[in-house]
Amino acid sequence: MKRPEEIFNYLEENFSDAGLEYQTGDVGEPWILAEASSLKMIMKMLRDDPELSFDVLMCLSGAHYQKEEELGVTYHLNSTNIGHKLAVKVRVPIDHPHVPSVESIWKTANWHEREAFDMVGVIFDEHPNHKRILCPDDWEGHPLRKDYVQQEFYQEMPTGE
């Protein structure tokens, strides 16, 4: 079982120019920050390399970093064979919120990516069914963005109190 820092060092040996960063916060587990352009090849290695063997994408969630004018995605991975866990994050500018889909790597990403698109507006390139999943197709905006303003009416019905 590898610790997150060991996994980061292992990835750096293979992707030294991928812009990876090892980060820690005040609480919780450390994570690896990846650039969107290198995300898919890193995720494939995390799944396929026998020393890593992350066979399960446990969760994927979107976030809005209003002050930085960015959207982010956090991936929580688990290796059921080896027993280690890892968080990988990616951040993109809010005016170009494109992240490659990992649905072809872990099928569970299908629903989670649609939810992150619906709630915060991350666009997952190459997703096979990229459309809203919780809100109606004609809903305005993305409800979990910090600057979201709820529309007053939907199909002539008030949406508030």
Write the topology of this structure.
Elements: H1 4-14, E1 21-23, E2 31-34, H2 36-48, E3 56-65, E4 70-78, E5 85-93, E6 98-100, H3 109-120, E7 123-125, E8 153-154, E9 157-158
Parallel strand pairs: 2-5, 6-7
Antiparallel strand pairs: 1-2, 3-4, 4-5, 8-9
Short description:
With 161 residues, this protein is of the alpha/beta class. It has helices at residues 4-14, 36-48, 109-120, and strands spanning 21-23, 31-34, 56-65, 70-78, 85-93, 98-100, 123-125, 153-154, 157-158. The strands form 3 sheets. It has a 5-stranded mixed sheet.
Can you give a write-up of this model?
22% of the residues lie in helices and 28% in strands. With 161 residues, the chain is α/β, with parallel strands linked by helices. A hairpin with a 6-residue loop joins strand 4 (70-78) and strand 5. The longest helix is centred in the N-terminal third of the chain and has 13 residues, at 36-48. The radius of gyration is 17 Å and the shape is elongated.
